[in-house]
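Morning F.,

Quick status update on the modeling queue. The single chain you submitted on Monday has been processed. Sequence for confirmation:
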Amino acid sequence: MELKYILKVFIIVFLIFSLIIFINTIGLNLNDEYPPKKLLQVVTVEGLDSLKDSSILMNKTDAFCESQRGSSGTLDDSCGKLTQGNCTSTSCCVWTSENKCKAGDINGPTFNSDSNGKTKKIDYYYFQKKCYGEKCK
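Structure tokens below.
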């Protein structure tokens, strides 16, 4: 290769390098868009008017019963998983003399029949931490 071609390549590389240094020195940013974009902050505010009921249940025992409203069969299964303390603090479950938590109210268990369909006699039951029945302790 001839020396004059090598000299031309070095001159072109030197000019490009010098142009890059000049642009960097004057602070020209070639990556900026024109016109410059403005950063906007978007805030979404949602009200509570869209709720079915405007009251928010803060008590977990009331929330438990409300979540089971309309499905008494599921409520009986859900009540059956509660401890005695949790069972007697709800307004939809009762703790029976059989040491079981069942769906019910102040009138006793909702489902109170055996496998033959006959009503079982419950000696006592606890509803909201109060004992009801003939043989209350």
